[in-house]
Fold each of these.
Amino acid sequence: MGSGLPFLVATQGSEVVGYSYAAKFHTRAAYRYTIEDSIYVSNSFLGRGIGKALLGALVNRCEAGQWRQMIALIGDGNPASIRLHEGHGFNVVGTLKSVGFKFGRWVDVVFMQRALGAGSTSNPMDASRPGDESI
């Protein structure tokens, strides 16, 4: 760990009913300001606003950090997840066909993206260092 990326947990009493976290989008240095979100809500707690609260809190925490873009990878074009992300400023930017294998079948993955903080309108680095331009 040690990346400073948040991991949030929603509980009902002593039961974990959902979680959200951010992870590095890619290991190469050029992508260090881009992160990917992940959200899970227990089936028995769907439709109660838990996902909305978790994603909102995750975005807020990440905007307070150094990160400038957040990516969501939504398997099987899950309409509820797409609506959840749209409600938090994400836009669909593409679909990868048949890249996930889930429940015994190939599924598409919808890519969504939103800016964090200043997004791409400013340079996140104080001063350029050799090698920062590499991908």
Amino acid sequence: MKILITGVAGTGKSTISNLLITKGIISVDVSAVPNLCYWREKTTNNKVEFAKKRNEKWFESNERICDPQHLSTILINHDNIVLCGSFSNIFERLLLFDKVILLQCNFDELIVRLRKRNSNYGKTKIEQNIVKKWQKVFDPQMISHRAIPVNTDAPINIVLKNIIHQINNI
């Protein structure tokens, strides 16, 4: 079974991926795989570096893409795998997965998590506003594409138990 766990920044994808591994479930955090995802300029499709100074215009001009061939190779090499991540071309890749789980969290909690996270994304007010705006669009779209919503506001052990239940419930 191939499962995608997705959600906007701060919903807990990387944390869940790491916890699933401790439970013996093969889980891959897309952010941890070199060259799986990259930033590109929307009009030219040229790869770009994740800018140190980012403003709203930078995010409007660029998108984070998952390399389809690299993704296919990962999925082909595993009969059972959970992929955790989000990327701009996610809707084009949904049919590769047997099940999609959408991590959701209220926005106040997202802000707390974005401020505390190890990643350099989500710490600025601009980025937090982008996440808020994207969450309003992304979550309903994912649900309309068969994603199973899981609320991550609860304590992590309860969230993990719920996700494992969703993974095992075919």
Amino acid sequence: MYQKLIKRLFDLTVATSAFILLSPLFLIICLLIKIDSKGPIFFKQRRIGKNKSEFLILKFRSMKIDTPKDQPTHLLESPDQYITKMGKFMRKTSLDELPQLINIISGKMSIVGPRPALYNQYDLIELRDEVGANDVRPGLTGWAQVNGRDELPIDVKSKFDGEYIVNLSFKFDLMCILKTFKSVSTADGIVEGKTNND
């Protein structure tokens, strides 16, 4: 009942309300991105959604237009050379993720769920198959994100994704949301560039 109806209604209500309330901030960010560097305001990337269907995730562009495509930022060599000044601030505060409210409103994403894998992250997709994490809408935030984010190797991420599926409920989603605010406020788990976990 929760997953099929209430969760979607909750997502739509919260995402639509947030989009309306934050629209002035959206406009300011759009303006600052255009002033800071050349290129489009939004960044679109192929991601894996529910039942492994592909969709285009939306983000505010935080990197220069010559950045290698379809590669996780934490796997880039010297990512600082690609990240714009405005992008550095947005990534630290997770403001670059705000356009995903549109993905949520359109039904491609949920507020809470496994973070959508890149279409070419075959190892992560396969591990998520084993725990049922590809059977739900991906999330703006998730259980893995509040337990390490970029610091986690993919086998650990998929383990947390599996735990989310087992515990999926309004109470668990609410706990993830509250933990997300804490993680974002402290920038916990954000890694730019290759680490020993990669």
